[in-house]
């Protein structure tokens, strides 16, 4: 059951990134011990579970840790995914329009 939820979350993230033409690289931690080790070592202590290891999906922009699926979902609901990812929102996007509105206040 956990595996299907993880797969759904991964597909949700990749679908969003693809539709919005945001370049990404999927790193498979099931088939690559190196990727699994890197992910576990690079999730900050504050974001690790009390017991066990962080479960995928975990989102990074290069070396910068962005967050897990829940954080991504919250950012998407708030139209703040580009900020979450450490990217500049493209002109005309809801996020760019919201930022422009804040700057005018």
TrEMBL record:
Organism name: Oncorhynchus mykiss (Rainbow trout)
Protein name: SH3 domain-binding glutamic acid-rich-like protein
Broad class of the protein's primary localization: membrane
Role noted for this protein: Appears to function as an adapter protein that bridges proteins together or proteins with mRNAs. May function as a ubiquitin ligase-substrate adapter. Additionally, associates with translating cytoplasmic ribosomes and may promote the expression of specific mRNAs.
Coiled coil: none
Assigned GO CC terms: cytosol; plasma membrane
Taxonomy of the source species: Eukaryota, Metazoa, Chordata, Craniata, Vertebrata
Gene3D superfamilies in the record: Glutaredoxin (3.40.30.10)
An example molecular function term from Gene Ontology annotations: SH3 domain binding
Protein family according to the UniProt entry: Belongs to the SH3BGR family.
Complexes and interactors: Monomer. Interacts with PFN1/Profilin-1. Interacts with ERBB2. Interacts with ATG12. Interacts with BECN1. Interacts with translating ribosomes.
Subcellular location: Cell membrane; Cytoplasm, Cytosol
InterPro entries per UniProt: Glut_rich_SH3-bd, SH3BGR, Thioredoxin-like_sf
Keywords per UniProt: Cell membrane, Cytoplasm, Membrane, SH3-binding
